[in-house]
Amino acid sequence: xxxxxxxxxLLKTIxxxxxxxxxxxxPSDRYSFSPILRWDPExxxxxxxxxxxxxxxxxxxxxxRPSSYSCVRVNTLKSTSDAVIEKLLEIIKEKGxxxxxxxxxxxxxxxxxxxxxxxxxxxxxxVKCQIPGLEYVLFVKGTGPHMIDYGYVPGxxxxxxxxxRKCAEAVLRGAQVxxxxxxxxxxxxxxxxxxxxxxxxxxxxxxxxxxxxxxxxERNGLYIGQGTATMSRAGLFRASEGxxxxxxxRVFRLPSFYDxxxxxxxxxxxxxxxTAHALDxxxxxxxxxxxxxxxxxxxxxAILMKDExxxxxxxxxxxxxxDIQKLAAEMSLTCITTYKLDVLKAIRQRNEADxxxxxxxxxxxxxxxxxxxxxxxxxxxxxxxxxxxxxxxxENGGAYVSKADIRKAKRRxxxxxxxxxxxxxxxxxxxxxxxxxxxxxxxxxxCSALGLRPRLFTGxxxxxxxxxxxxxxxxxxxxxxxxxxxxxVIVYSTCTINPGENEAxxxxxxxxxxxxxxxxxNPRIGGPGLVGSFESAxxxxxxxxxxxxxxxxxxxxxxxxxxxxxxxxxxxxxxSKDA
Length: 579
Hints:
Keywords: Methyltransferase, RNA-binding, S-adenosyl-L-methionine, Transferase. GO terms for molecular function: RNA binding; RNA methyltransferase activity. This protein has 579 residues and is an alpha+beta fold. Helix content is 34%, strand content 19%. It is globular. 38% of the residues are buried.
């Protein structure tokens, strides 16, 4: 009821302001898409010192817009680029995507003038990546920004649905407007009505925090498209799920491939695909993906390994581990082993006696389960077979197996593997891993995500919050160093433009661990890293890269001609830890 009252007051304020208090303005200014990111002053000053005022202004504008293309990774173990292109073209044809989106083309940084992708994208809506080694990556062309006629008439503004900022960002990436994302709606909206869709951005509240303000109606330049209401206003606020607005006239338009060709393709940002290549995984190796969810880089690595070897994927969330399992199953990848584990607790100290007992117990249980499975198929007595197998395992030097373990094995033989043993059902916890136990380690670290696009709000980002991310990342990197073997490789990556989480981490790694050295990456399509340092008002100095190191890392600038998200990749070779 409170929400309904707030929305009523909001709409009443909008109607009153449109006739009395709002100054006259050009409708093309209000009903347009021209957002401005508003940064915390300290954060803005920090980034201006890193990039320069003009460059940072261009980066900020680029962050408010999606890339001009979607990037599709083909599962080469199940299909080919040519076969996928043929299928996707048919899907685009069925959906009627014509690329003009009923509007005039506007201008913006994502028009990609001068981009190496520009010429390729002129050859058709879907093209293969021309970067050597990435021919299995497809680019799907989008269009925008478009100038949309919202049907404004003086004194009679168009019917409107106001959505939350996160919903708006999803719509800009190609999603529909779903019921939970709707914040407010004009009066008298009925099913089938054409409505303008605008974004409500968080505003500072009296307590100093940020929240959607139902009385805040200034949305100039925050209109993201037009669509058809799928339900009335009354129905909209009674429903708890479903599509609220079918977006058919968008400011940015990209073909949607949600739930399309599952197992054959995966939508993934280009820098993330490059990260898997930088790790250079080889068949038969033991590799660790420390922060693996949702599984995009994990499955990319598995495919580069030809699904041969062991790829351990970690996340501390039960549900996220299940997401990795589901994606691996869809792609028919068997070399991936998932565990629920906080990576800050990833080190397990070696105890020789325990190690022997664990291995023997595991082998004996696996022995009697495999034998019992075979016996079931041949019609043997299950209980006796299970007990005999365990007895034989113990006589042959295996560790003691309890009666409880025997009973569990019997139930599995009688009833099958069960839901908890099926892919996506059971999540294994891990006690950690011994030092020096992996050939390669990927740390795609949780970060401030200030490179993700589109982004309509940055007000909550502070210098303190950026420092907390950097501190957490260093602790995770310490774990990675202990887990990788001498002669191995560590790849560190983030999706942020913050040098404190990127170049400063590299500086920490090289200064702290003298046996680490920066390694070259292939392919190299990103730009160089930032050289220098930043001195804060309190005298604290943050060191970045030194001359000569910048060409070893890859920094993806969201305002560059590649038109990607903001991203960073560093690769380290691990020397002898005894030196």
